[in-house]
Write a structure and sequence with these properties.
The chain is of the alpha+beta class. Helices cover 42% and strands 11% of the residues. The strands form two sheets. A six-stranded antiparallel beta sheet has the order 1-10-7-8-6-5. Strands 3-2-4-9 form a four-stranded antiparallel beta sheet, with helices on one face. The longest helix has 22 residues, at 506-527.
Length: 543
């Protein structure tokens, strides 16, 4: 986009919507009553963080290099922080407020809104955007539209800031992903759909009142500033949900201020210390990294081939492709030196994909991406990697486009046809009463006539449900045992489900999975397959 496009967008926005100053703009996003006052120990809230770039002399490099600084913004020093930040050639701010001085995702305290970066926007595309908003009503009305130079930034400011509890973050990421797909289309951007960029909720953008990229090419940079225009009221999660498909919708909560919005149950650190002492010792006291699966090296090699394919890589996703290379290296437990070398081999090719001026791909970008070589990213999901890079990930199971439930129905039908619609379970499995655990429990009781069930569980290593099942078993002609009460099975099964959902490690989850499987097996042997299937449905009921 040219300087003429920038001016035409400004003229159009000025004629249609009121312009707001940088001070009013950021005060509406971050009200003073939600911020701390400097040196006030009795007022503890979260604060926005302004980031700006300066050129400073480096003793190591023996030349001037770029340094980024974070300015924590306090309510009683707001104007000073804004003036300090705006005067630099690059000033950035996100829609999140943070607890602490470091601008880290783990320190993010509240999300005050979404910022969608819409690139390749001229006057015609801007008019199309507002046509979709006002006439067609197919795009949610934004609170602000900011003319950032080559494109525009679309701001959706929340009526009530959303606390960033665990798991709530992913819901917000998904909602923003769906909104970006809807806002960035062939009518609102000159860029192809395949070059659409999806940023997370923490992404910072050029601040209102600071210089645009166009300012670096002209003698009077103060004439080419980022300008903001008020285009609508604050929004709610419920309102934004109307414009996205079901898979991207966000759970709704009237005040977004409780654990109800997050998935599963949650415990305080003190409760975790009592419930999971081994985990507490390992992760909190000893500061050990979390456990993770060790993937095959072939997974890393596959991703490296994907990001060498020019059909997958473009100007807008090069950084994410490299950062996910470090994630896969962590998943496969590969040496960082190996990944550094592989990433540097892509530098020239990636730089050759540059489309926008000033967006060259440099060695510093690879260095920045290397921060993803960390155990905390080892559990990043395929869905999240696909969201960040835009590269389609293969399905984990080959179902030819069918859902899991549809696929299971089809496979069951094929199985029944092969078996002549007879009960394929007849004659299969271990004969009733021949359990080795039963023999072990009964032998232990003979040796310990006064022993307790808890002692048997501890000494034999057999699970609690199995010991209880065979504790009072008596032999008869067919070797059958007394049946286990249904109430007991269901009570133990519910407990195993709850323990599984609150487990902190894969090892703990696996143990509870095995307990659930053993209980289902007991239910099947004692009461038949229908009751076993009924027991398994408790998982959905508890969810």
């Amino acid at each position: 986009m040219s300087l003429q496009d920038y001016r035409e967008k400004n003229r159009y926005l000025v004629s249609e919507y009121p312009e707001v100053t940088a001070s009013d703009f950021y005060q509406s996003i971050f009200p003073f009553d939600t911020m701390e006052r400097k040196y006030d120990p009795f007022r503890r809230f979260s604060n926005p963080i302004f980031t700006y770039r300066t050129a400073e002399y480096s003793e190591k490099e023996q030349k001037k290099v770029a340094f980024f600084h974070n300015e924590v913004v306090y309510s009683d020093h707001f104007e000073e922080s804004l003036a300090l930040t705006q005067k630099n050639d690059l000033a950035l701010c996100s829609c999140c407020s943070y607890s602490g001085r470091r601008k880290l995702a783990k320190n993010a305290f509240r999300c005050h809104g979404f910022i969608i970066d819409l690139d390749g926007v001229g006057l015609r595309q801007l008019q199309n955007f507002f046509g979709w908003v006002e006439q067609l009503e197919k795009i949610p009305r934004p609170t602000y539209v900011v003319n950032s130079g080559n494109g525009v930034h679309i701001y959706y400011i929340f009526e009530n800031p959303v606390p960033l509890y665990p798991n709530v973050t992913q819901h917000l990421q998904n909602l923003k992903h769906g909104l970006t797909d809807w806002v960035w289309n062939k009518e609102t951007s000159t860029y192809p759909i395949k070059e659409r960029q999806h940023q997370g909720i923490y992404q910072a953008f050029r601040m209102v009142g600071s210089c645009t990229k166009l300012a670096h090419n002209y003698k009077s940079p103060e004439r080419y500033l980022v300008r903001a225009f008020r285009t609508g009221p604050p929004v709610t999660i419920e309102y934004l949900n109307r414009f996205v498909s079901e898979e991207f919708k966000c759970p709704e909560n009237p005040d977004y201020s409780s654990w109800e919005w997050a998935d599963g149950e949650h415990y305080t650190l003190a409760e975790c210390q009592l419930r999971y002492p081994d985990w507490y010792q390992r992760r909190i006291i000893d500061k050990e990294p979390p456990n993770q699966w060790h993937c095959n090296r072939a997974l890393y090699d596959w991703w490296y081939r994907q990001i060498q394919n020019l059909d997958n890589v473009k100007d807008g996703n090069r950084y994410h492709c490299i950062s996910m290379l470090y994630v896969y290296a962590q998943k496969c437990m590969l040496a960082k030196e190996l990944v550094d070398a592989d990433a540097m081999n892509l530098l020239d090719m990636y730089n050759g994909l540059t489309v926008r001026d000033g967006n060259e791909f440099k060695a510093q970008d690879i260095k920045d991406a290397s921060k993803f070589y960390s155990s905390k990213f080892a559990r990043m999901t395929k869905k999240e990697i696909e969201r960040r890079t835009g590269i389609r990930m293969p399905d984990g199971a080959k179902r030819n486009g069918r859902t899991q439930s549809e696929h299971v129905k089809l496979m069951n039908f094929v199985r029944d046809e092969i078996n002549g619609n007879k009960n394929w379970r007849d004659g299969n499995g271990r004969p009733k009463g021949s359990s080795q655990q039963r023999i072990i429990v009964q032998e232990w009781r003979v040796k310990h006539p006064d022993g307790r069930k808890a002692d048997c569980i501890r000494e034999t290593g057999i699970s609690k449900p199995t010991v209880y099942r065979w504790w009072d078993a008596k032999d008869n002609e067919k070797g059958a045992a007394t049946m286990v009460d249904k109430d007991y099975i269901e009570r133990e099964y519910r407990q195993a489900i709850l323990e599984f959902k609150t487990a902190k490690t894969e090892e703990e989850r696996w143990e509870f999975r095995k307990t659930m499987a053993r209980l289902e097996q007991i239910a099947m042997q004692e009461y038949g397959f229908d009751y076993s299937d009924q027991l398994h449905k408790l998982v959905d009921d508890i969810e």
